């Protein structure tokens, strides 16, 4: 599984179906079952949004990489577990003392 952890200054801008742009901090990118998944944290979360990150799958479309919603619950849960394990393994508890 190829994994990459990003610094908090790695930001991308995504545009939704309605043309609204939102900026996200890239937490990490992992490969799972042959696909790449991005864990993204909204740069400025809405007040009514839950704390947490968004998981999107990378897909090639007309030579361009698109990030799409993971609609399958089993796929989403499996990827979320992988991302949680990866992010938790990157925490250096000795630095927090």
Structure description:
This protein has 97 residues and is α+β, with helices and mostly antiparallel strands. The chain has one domain. Helices cover 18% and strands 43% of the residues. The chain is built from 1 helix and 6 strands; from the N terminus they run ββββββα. The protein has one helix at 73-89; strands spanning 3-5, 11-15, 21-32, 35-42, 54-61, 64-69. Strands 1, 2, 3, 4, 5 and 6 form a 6-stranded antiparallel β-sheet that branches.
What fraction of residues sit in β-strands? 35-45%
SSE succession: EEEEEEH
User: How does the major sheet shape up?
Assistant: 6 strands, antiparallel
Task: Give the tally of structural domains.
Answer: 1
Could you tell me the radius of gyration in angstroms? 14 Å
User: What percent of residues adopt helix (DSSP H or I)?
Assistant: 10-25%
What is the overall shape?
A: globular
- Give the quaternary arrangement of the chains: single chain
Could you give the distance between the termini? 31 Å
Class inferred from helices and paired strands: alpha+beta
Mean pLDDT across every amino acid position? 83
Secondary structure tally, helices: 1
Low-confidence stretches: none
Number of strands: 6
What characteristics describe this protein?
alpha+beta, 97 residues, globular, six-stranded antiparallel β-sheet
Short description:
The protein has 97 residues and is α+β, with helices and mostly antiparallel strands.
Question: What's the structural blueprint in terms of helices and strands?
Answer:
Elements: E1 3-5, E2 11-15, E3 21-32, E4 35-42, E5 54-61, E6 64-69, H1 73-89
Antiparallel strand pairs: 1-3, 2-3, 3-4, 4-5, 5-6
